[in-house]
Amino acid sequence: MAMTRQTRRKRLLVLGLLLGALLTGCSSGAGSDETANHAVHTAPNGDLREVTASIDDLPSFLRDKPEPIQETYRLAGQHADVLKWIPCTCGCGPSAGHRSNRDCFIHEIRPDGSVVWDDHATRCDICLRIAAEAAHMAESGKSVREIRQHIDATYGKYGPPTPTPQPPAS
Ligand SMILES: [Zn+2]
Ligand SMILES: [Zn+2]
């Protein structure tokens, strides 16, 4: 997909906003009063899950969230195949059973293309920063292995990584 200069600038702006955010760990879900016609339920750890018809259809729990968070969810959806090889170091491995940074945004992509979104990353600067940076690198043409090495080196210090396998050589 061709990307306009304006889109690129917007993404850089989003990344800058995220990088400017304070690094805080994750809080657990705080319940919800979602009323959209999407199926919504709560995971055992309190994180909210919501089903939408496709990866282009963002969950309604983002509606009242700041635009950088919405944009990062959109990027995470577009780059889900990259993020599944990228660990998250916010502590969500031990605390939420996440296997990669993808799980902080997307619980499941079903065979019919529908998506079970997870609201964990809406409360987690580390998850957001890792995803935004990985997506930006992917759009700059970096390989998944290069992205993985960068994220490991940059975010490994924050906490225990999710048990994410190394990406295959490409
Ligand atoms: Zn997190
Ligand atoms: Zn995470």
TrEMBL record:
Keyword set, alphabetical order: Signal
Top-rank taxon, per record: Bacteria
PROSITE patterns in alphabetical order: PROKAR_LIPOPROTEIN
Name the UniProt record assigns to this protein: Lipoprotein
InterPro entries, alphabetized: PCYCGC
Signal peptide: 1-32
Species name: Calditerricola satsumensis
